[in-house]
Write the structure tokens for this entry.
Amino acid sequence: MSAAASRTTTDLPEPSLPDPDLLKVLRTMALARAVDERCMNLQRQGRLGFYVPLEGQEAAQVGCAWALQPGDWVCPAYRELAVALTRGVPLRDILNQLYGNSADLSKGRQMPNHYGFRQHRFLSASSPIGTQIIHAVGLAYASRYKGEKVVAVPFFGDGATSSNDFHSGMNFAGVYKAPVVFFCQNNQWAISLPREKQTHSSTLAIKANAYGFPGVQVDGNDFHAVYRAVKEARARAVAGEGPTLIEAVTYRMGPHSTSDDPRRYRTPQELATWKARDPIERLKSELLARGVFSEAQFESLQEELRSMVQKEVQEVEKMGPPAATSLFDDVWASLSPNLEEERKEFEELLREGVIRP
Amino acid sequence: MSAAASRTTTDLPEPSLPDPDLLKVLRTMALARAVDERCMNLQRQGRLGFYVPLEGQEAAQVGCAWALQPGDWVCPAYRELAVALTRGVPLRDILNQLYGNSADLSKGRQMPNHYGFRQHRFLSASSPIGTQIIHAVGLAYASRYKGEKVVAVPFFGDGATSSNDFHSGMNFAGVYKAPVVFFCQNNQWAISLPREKQTHSSTLAIKANAYGFPGVQVDGNDFHAVYRAVKEARARAVAGEGPTLIEAVTYRMGPHSTSDDPRRYRTPQELATWKARDPIERLKSELLARGVFSEAQFESLQEELRSMVQKEVQEVEKMGPPAATSLFDDVWASLSPNLEEERKEFEELLREGVIRP
Amino acid sequence: MTEATLIQAVNKALHHAMKVDPDVLCLGEDIGVNGGVFRATEGLQKEFGESRVLDTPLNESGIVGMAVGMALYGLKPVAEIQFLDFIYPAFDQIVSELTKFRYRSGGQFPAHVVIRTPYGGGIRGGLYHSQSTEQLFASTPGIKVVVPSTPADAKGLLLTAIFDEDPVLFMEPKRIYRTATGEVPEGDHRVPFGKARIVREGSDVSVFAYGSMVPTAFQARQVLEKTGIHAELVDLRTLVPLDVDAVVRSVEKTGRAVIVHEAPKFCGFGAELAAILAEKALYSLKAPIVRVTGYDTPFPYTLENLYLPSVDRIGRAIQRTVAAG
Amino acid sequence: MTEATLIQAVNKALHHAMKVDPDVLCLGEDIGVNGGVFRATEGLQKEFGESRVLDTPLNESGIVGMAVGMALYGLKPVAEIQFLDFIYPAFDQIVSELTKFRYRSGGQFPAHVVIRTPYGGGIRGGLYHSQSTEQLFASTPGIKVVVPSTPADAKGLLLTAIFDEDPVLFMEPKRIYRTATGEVPEGDHRVPFGKARIVREGSDVSVFAYGSMVPTAFQARQVLEKTGIHAELVDLRTLVPLDVDAVVRSVEKTGRAVIVHEAPKFCGFGAELAAILAEKALYSLKAPIVRVTGYDTPFPYTLENLYLPSVDRIGRAIQRTVAAG
Ligand SMILES: Cc1ncc(C[n+]2csc(CCOP(=O)(O)OP(=O)(O)O)c2C)c(N)n1
Ligand SMILES: Cc1ncc(C[n+]2csc(CCOP(=O)(O)OP(=O)(O)O)c2C)c(N)n1
Ligand SMILES: [Mg+2]
Ligand SMILES: [Mg+2]
């Protein structure tokens, strides 16, 4: 009897959430996928400057974010689109950032994907790898100091475990028993460097040993596994039992970014292996198998999402760039005399047409 | 039957070396102690600017250095006096550095204890904690690349395990299987920070798990234990089996440096506990118990060493400071046009008496 | 008003800030039980507890990064870096994170951290306990750079720093920690940023200094006064924001400029002062602008007194500048 | 001689050095199989093997620190930092170790490492893929700072760097990686350090630039030439060592100076040039020294073209300077 033939409902994973919730989960994952596909295309068409896809990591991201509370702090890297969506960040806000337009909450200051949403306690991402890991410790410490029962969650990759701030963040969190859930998406690659050349440790989770708290490796393409692990780690953290490192084993299906060509360093076979483990397909087939919904329903869901994304993009593309003089804002809480002078000169150049927005 | 009463030769540790060698070991340890005592006094008398004592760590340092070969690279912190002595560095050279005089091989450029001896493959120490750890990986890699069968040994403290370069050094060594023996002297304190507030890990040795190679904790006040552990790690490394982290558990009996007052942060009881574990007393009583030599012989050895140190200090104190214009040497391989100009102006100021050496 | 040393004034400022505002926290190496290696934080942990005065593990990137996290929350962390020479492991957190959070997030995530750190030579600290590298920070938009030279300013500028909204690097001239003494106002004494202090007026030449070079330059000025040279000594106090008006005005008056700092000359902070003058006061300049600085080498140990700008060296430069044109 | 782009010239230099000297090794992120994110190291791992072209883990402190260790042994490592913006985790290894080893050991332990890194804006890289922070390194004694602006210089200066005895920061103007093309000599082509290049002679004003600002300033110069303004364009090539003579000589001739760089103005490298002129060529100056630079803010994304010195902005500054006096 083949594995497929033996599949009965009893072989399905114990659902971590009631079916209506799982449908929402699936919808969020599918929305992330739809945005991803659209943006990769927009970039190829020259309409978007750059893009960092997350394809393949939807279960890891949604699984983690679903286990968090609104008061929790998210400290993202640049690939956390599905986390932002799960947090309830409006797609419009995300797209505005990708376009760096006048409605971008970050005022067009950063490359695509480096968004931040104060209202959602979703930190503004930076490119330097790993720096947010220690910020999470400070945020967690501060929140506890002010009596909040929340956690801070730094998101980072396998590559980031080599960074200085992974080391300081893990160590400080251990020492202060800070309520942090370290969430590592081991997607097997750091641009062209494979996981096994990044570090010689047997797993990434084992690195928690060095700091005296638990490390857990989970199947990052299994929504339920990720959700449960994070939920448990969160509970431990708010109960004052200290931090946890979670390694979600997953795969970056696309290129590192639109500037990258993964064919230079990895094989089609590897890609195919992981394609077969697609996290969306996985949750979908579970729900199909349980009869929660049908293939047709899923297809119309996808249709709906794609056209929604399409519409949003259309709206966002109507916006112009931020005001020229916004260049000088937010360096300081208020314009310094020095910048006042530079801004004046800049305005003169604008008037003279020497600088043309 | 009490533990003391049960002591027979069979209870003594299995010697790691033949007795004549152990006598040399003891002599080196006693010499280090004699230098330490003298220098602490010289500093109190205002004859020496600053000093970093190693009292209590003699077995760890001599034990490690004894297991090394002349071609091995030593990458010290600032407390490695006994390592330098074991490597055969002349006491005169060490004292010249402490005084920063005209005979100092480092030309009076650094604070006391930050010596370096090219001839002994003993790197020039810097104050920033941990930086030498990654240099060791580069040296080890380069040596192997050039076909040498040697190891590089970074020396560092418990505090240094928190540094960025501990993390990068350990990780890179694991990835490249570099022939490195990471030698951590856990002397329980990083200035005023006790070991248990430095990191939440159960041991420091366990941190090797995070990098995929063995970590070993040894009694750092037991010469034999340290010697054996390093010898074995060295053999593994040169055989191509990769690095090892050794944690030698010991104690800093003195202040962090002559600028420090440990009474502000630690108890007399703690000191007394560790005093009873004095590494020199320990090896000495073993040799006495085996009848290798007598208490009287040890006392005359101490006498001899003290007066030798005394004489060396007298010689060294005769030396003047380095030449004034040596200020401008060694910034570059050869004087830059910029420094040539500054040096000319400096010489003019010297002639005019504006600057007085 | 009470008489205090500069380091005591620092301690008073910290104490006052922590007392009036529970959101002020201190963190750093050896600052708790030990009270800091220079005793700047003496007594604070005892009074305010371990949760507000944190002894940290040995990692400066961690100290600043954690402070950034606290500040993102809304607290007012004061991080101590034991010596300026040890700030470099935290450099990425400072130049990539702390100074850029407000900007990169379009103002959503300001991060106000004060980094206190002793700097400068003259204590026989050698290569790694003596450096002055203010130019590294002053050249990075997004962080204010403050260097007091008197106890009253130390307290007043530090309190301004702690209750400011922008990141601040607060550089403490360790060489005069205990030799600079003076009256320090009690309570909530604030000294505004961006206002230089005219230490002594003068008509022949402007001398610009900050931190521990102020007393040295002052001595040089006093010696020359007896020979009939009236130098105007300007203590910049804050390098960022810089009191450009005061700098330009002074040279418009005197027509000559001597700039003093401990840091090496090449690309040091003095270069910016000279550049500002060459742009905004060129036609007032009667003589070439002279910089009296550390040499373009690392900091030495035995010979540090030959390396550092001395009263005599500054005096000679002033004399020559006045004689030059 | 063959025609090549600037990035190809870099590749040629690396290839030549590795071929003639087995002690030359390369290390960095994604430089092996991937050939570097800009393809500077394309083909090197294939030809010279994994033991000479090392893909490293993601840690710049590790990259530079390991290179320092290799150099202490006597090898000639060439480290790549993927973007200058990511060099800061390695800052401690650079300013505390690499630049100070020779000095602190009294010459016993020289450490010669070349750090190659793409820098600058104009590629829509935003805050963290666009910065120019040469002043941080130029102000630190012990490291040479080299910025080529043509393919021939890129090859010639890089070979000089690799076979020099001092640490070198080799900043590659990524914006013109592929747009700067030109003849590149074959083989062991070397361009000496400390010799500026007079791109075009002129009598009315001296324009100082380096790296990717050279072609921009050149365009501005050419436009103005038609209006009768003859600007002398000087490509500094190496900021450390700086060709002070060439700078001073040019201004002695023209009496005016315009300094151009992408980095922010305040405490930027231009300040040092201005300071040198205010000291050594003051009496030649007919007009205030003007700096055309990035603004004193972090680097923006959408508005980068408004931020960067443009042909028009440079041209206007030249015109005004000539008109000023
Ligand atoms: C400090 C630093 N060094 C180098 C880079 C260039 N870089 C960008 S992403 C990346 C790989 C990151 O890998 P990983 O942490 O696994 O995250 P992933 O991209 O796989 O999600 C590198 C090397 C950087 N952004 N920051
Ligand atoms: C980067 C850095 N930060 C801080 C210091 C100040 N400091 C000097 S020694 C020391 C403690 C070192 O402790 P450990 O590594 O255990 O070595 P030990 O002194 O005990 O031998 C500290 C914090 C420094 N030298 N370098
Ligand atoms: Mg990855
Ligand atoms: Mg210790």
